[in-house]
Amino acid sequence: MVYRKSLLLPLCGMLLAACSTVSMTGRKQLNLVSESEILSASLSEYQTYMQSAKVSTDANATAVVRNVAQRIASAAESYLRASGQEADLQNYAWEFNLVQSDELNAFCMPGGKIVVYTGMLSLAGTGADRDDELAAVIGHEVGHAIAKHGQERASQQLLTQLGGQLIGVAVANKAAETQQAVALAYGMGAQYGALLPFSRKHELEADYIGIVLATLAGYDADAAITLWQKMEAASGGSGSSEFMSTHPSSSTRIKQLQKDIPTVKATYGTATTTTKAAATKKAAKSTTTKKTGTGFKIG
Length: 299
Fold this sequence. Notes:
With 299 residues, this protein is mainly alpha-helical. It has one domain. The chain has helices at 2-17, 35-52, 59-82, 118-124, 130-146, 149-170, 176-216, 223-235, 250-268, 273-285, and strands at residues 19-21, 28-30, 95-99, 106-109, 113-117. A hairpin with a 3-residue loop joins β4 (106-109) and β5 (113-117).
């Protein structure tokens, strides 16, 4: 019992000290892993990826992606400045790449390294709403970065490991069969009861931040709905159970976007550049009024 308390008390103190708030939504999050560690690891992973990635040689398509990505990045920077988070800007060194792949995917690493696959660009098409849909994709990815989801997920994994150690101590004197049963139950409970739901929540949160950034950058947030309708059609409506997935279903995302877009447009959509900054600052101070959903394949 003394040993368990010696583990539990420092853990409780660490959890209290590691709580922070997600910019733009007001959700409390856990950050046990330092931002410098995440940035260093993500940069190394990105550099390794780019060494083998087939970068598109289509100059026109690359220009389309970089133009939209730059506008989204600028909107993110404006938001961070207006909401009193200017110090976070030092963590971003934006880079935009179009990579040749049929996969319907894109990602933004912590630190601002953005990659869009040509398959995703093709899904957005060549019509008038192409850039708006692309803005929804890139805005979502940048949303992951400025909400520090990578840092939070690493922290959740660390906390799960610590919890497993505590459970192990608690049943150390039990029969081997009991220890195995408890370990299995804890592992499944952590996976389906905590880690996956948190991942789904991150996705819906990034969707919300993405439509805010797209609106601030001058794009039509409604394109996020048409994008996910295309994604749903492309997948044939099939896939694993949402309960057992890290991503919410397309229909869940569409329903949440339909709820969020009118509010986002009313808050950010009709303002001039100056008043948009003021609205952003006001919204950042009133994040408790925004509720995220219950939760890619985007990023």
